[in-house]
Amino acid sequence: MEKPPKNDIPDDHSNHTKSHNFLKKLYDKSSILKVRKKKIYLNHDDIVSINIKNNIKNDLYHYFIQISWWKFSFLSFLVYCVICLFFATLLYPEWAEISSIKNPSLLTLFFFSIETLSTVGFGFMAPTQAISHTIVSIELFTGILVNAVVTGLIFARFTRIPARVNISDDIVVYEEGGIKYLSVQIINERKNSVISLNSEMTLLRIVQCEDKSAKPIFEQITLKENFIPILQYYHELCHAINEESPFYQMSSDDFQKESFRIFLYINGIDDVTRQNIFARKTYKIKNIKESYRFENIMNIEDNGTIIFDAAKAGKIVPSSPQVDAPPHDPTPT
Fold this sequence. Notes:
The chain has 333 residues and is an alpha+beta fold. Helices cover 28% and strands 27% of the residues. It has helices at 22-25, 29-38, 60-66, 69-91, 106-117, 130-159, 252-257, and strands spanning 40-42, 165-167, 171-176, 179-188, 194-208, 214-221, 227-231, 234-240, 260-270, 276-283, 288-290, 292-294, 298-300, 306-308, 316-318. Strands 1, 5, 6, 7, 9 and 10 form a six-stranded antiparallel β-sheet that branches.
């Protein structure tokens, strides 16, 4: 049997028993130094973003689509009142040109503006001269545009259905069948199904270049099943930690010294609306839980009834190595 290179496995880990701690088993200090001579990985928390223009006025559509409903309703009402008040102020000097106004006031003209902007007229107040007719005509045109824009935004917000695919807050690492697995749990929070679900996991590191500049480096994290025909209940997305894994030969010290982010992207089709849905999750080092697995959320009762307990979604329990267990089989969906 050929001996491994001296710098790849330290002496105190020469036994390589399968029950060894994952993070301590995977990488030694000499290899860390060897890798660091080639690449220096920087801490994401040290990044300070500057000169990023967040100009809302140039991206109003995106802003009104992403804000919450209560904020959208409040801003819409505020804009509506401001427009009505603006035209009421324009009409105030020409109040005599508005019929049926005996005691002119800004409040009276404000309500007249509301009726005009919403194209609702009660037949009591109406413009009688050219100036007031011009102002009211402009207000009517403005009202048509405002109503069209707000209607479009409301329609766009209603048709942008949320994914309602719950992604676990933690990533668990456990051993099964002599193989280390990195696993994330996803759960369908709706009673209907998600079909043609695709998932992708990516590792992001910030690398220091020779000229002291920094650039992001993406590495693909291969999932055992990145395509699920149908997600009705839940599924575990698993990544086998082998020689091809970016986590192969990484120790506890690496997870402290090397800063990275893990991104999980999920997209599928809602079988009711037939619309695409999208969900994502970002994980930091603190979200990786070693020697844990997800709690069983689908169990069989004595009478044969299968209970799916969504309240246990994302909950983790300690896991012990299962050396003699068969290789991991993905959870049924």
